[in-house]
Design brief:
The protein is mainly β. It has one helix and 41 strands.
């Protein structure tokens, strides 16, 4: 009788159904399996008791034989250290390679799990989440082997829309619709939209300040305002395209970005120059500073500092704002200007996000290529830090926002992430498939409040997920 049991055990092993014998290394986990203890086999449940409790192999059915009284393991994915036969054409499953010693296919790296359609990481693969067969919903991510929440649609898709820019304040979402020329609002929890303004000229950046909403009309080169409940829209800053053309170092005075600080001061960039003025129409403007070669875009203000990404030269600069003493941002090799009250924290960035920049606790945050970067505002060293990175194949961050010491961002593979505001932070995936695979358009804008993250996807839907 003992001989027949031993023979059966040999046949099972030769058929690629793996066992845990006395002091035998478990090839699916790399751990020892003591003869009479509980052991874990990859893809199966716990196999208990006996000397040779058997687990099902990759993608197979439940194990049915366990000598010595052990229970058969359930079927599932074997670990990456388990080899499988190549197909009839001699090809290995995806992300696996054939070893010449036994001519079997093994996952590369071995930490991956072998599934019938190839090697996967079940801790973060939304099409094989936790095991070989669990697929998360189309826009949900896989986090630590569990499917996350499916984003909620707050505002449905808008046909004919090109891009939307968002703001949130007091539990209300505000947005501009670039193609339709509208500015609207809606309770963030859902409800009926309110039309704030129509007939706008390609409106983009939007900000709420008290009872007023402000936005940039890129088509008419104006910063507009209207009451948050709707009403007549008026221009706070209006620069006709022909006015002073070329006077700013040969750069037409196009408004690049704006922000409102302290509730009463409007900062905006036009051409190479940054100005500030009171929000009351007709008040005189004052120069904050200007670039020697770059074009300031999105603006962030904290205390006496204003920071921004610059188009053309790809720099990220910080001006120290001292009244009546405008800053000059010039590179050390400039032959036309001398740097004055300006710190360059990022130079010649390859793929800058020009629409988003934030300052928090004397640190400036910006996005370049597939990363969120940071530098001290008050004591820059010229060397910046990486806060968080997107997907391995991401080349740009089209939108990001900062709230409650957390950065939220989308990369150009369509994945939404969050990470704490610290150097080399661990990221968490919140959603996926936020990209138009035909046009490659991605997320155009995102904002967060104390409970939710909101973003506008290429279909001009506004979606949300909880921030916690």
């Amino acid at each position: 009788m003992k001989k027949s049991i031993s023979l059966l055990g040999v046949l099972l092993i030769s058929g690629s159904i793996y066992a845990c014998g006395s002091k035998k290394a478990d090839t699916t986990t790399g751990q020892q399996c003591p003869g009479s203890a509980t052991c874990v086999s990859a893809g199966g449940t716990l196999t208990t008791g006996g000397t040779t409790g058997v687990a099902g192999m990759s993608g197979g059915t439940a194990g049915t034989v366990a000598t010595g009284g052990g229970a058969g393991g359930t079927g599932g994915a074997a670990g990456g250290a388990t080899g499988v036969m190549p197909d009839a054409a001699g090809q290995c499953p995806r992300r696996s390679l054939k070893h010449t010693d036994d001519m079997l296919c093994y996952c590369q790296p071995a930490s991956l799990t072998m599934c019938p359609d190839g090697c996967v990481d079940p801790t973060q693969d939304p099409t094989h989440c936790g095991n070989c067969t669990t697929m998360c919903e189309a826009t949900a991510e896989c986090v630590d082997g569990l499917c996350g929440l499916t984003p909620t649609t707050v505002v449905p898709a808008a046909a004919g829309c090109e891009a939307m820019h968002l703001a949130v304040a007091g539990g209300v979402l505000y947005w501009t619709d670039k193609a339709h020329g509208t500015v609207q609002s809606q309770p963030a929890a859902g409800g009926t939209p309110t039309m704030i303004a129509t007939g706008q000229m390609t409106p983009t950046t939007i900000q709420v300040n008290g009872t007023q909403v402000y936005w940039l009309n890129t088509g008419s080169n104006e910063i507009m305002t209207a009451p948050i409940g709707g009403g007549a829209a008026t221009a706070v800053v209006s620069i006709p395209p022909s006015a002073d053309a070329g006077a700013d170092g040969g750069v037409p005075p196009t408004i690049g970005g704006f922000t409102i600080a302290r509730g009463t001061i409007l900062y905006y960039s036009t051409g190479k120059t940054i100005y500030k003025m009171g929000l009351t129409p007709g008040l005189p403007k004052q120069e904050v500073g200007h670039e020697d070669s770059g074009i300031p875009k999105a603006l962030a203000v904290e205390g006496d500092y204003i920071g921004y990404p610059a188009d053309i030269n790809g720099d990220v600069d910080i001006m120290n704002m001292i009244d009546f003493d405008p800053s000059v941002c010039a590179s050390t090799d400039s032959t036309t200007a001398m740097n004055h009250l300006c710190a360059r924290v990022g130079r010649s960035q390859g793929s800058l996000n020009l629409e988003n920049v934030f300052m928090v606790n004397e640190v400036i945050y910006w996005a370049n290529q597939g990363q969120i970067l940071s530098s001290s505002v008050t004591m820059p060293t010229g060397v910046y830090d990486t806060v968080a990175s997107g997907s391995a194949d991401a080349s740009k961050i089209p939108a990001f926002t900062v709230r409650d010491m957390t950065v939220y961002f989308a990369d150009d593979t369509g994945v939404i992430f969050k990470a704490p505001l610290m150097i080399n932070a661990t990221t968490t995936k919140l959603a996926r498939a936020q990209i138009d695979t035909t046009t490659l358009a991605g997320v155009s804008s995102m904002v967060a409040d104390s409970s939710n993250l909101y973003w506008a996807n290429p279909a001009c839907e506004i979606l949300s997920v909880p921030t916690q």
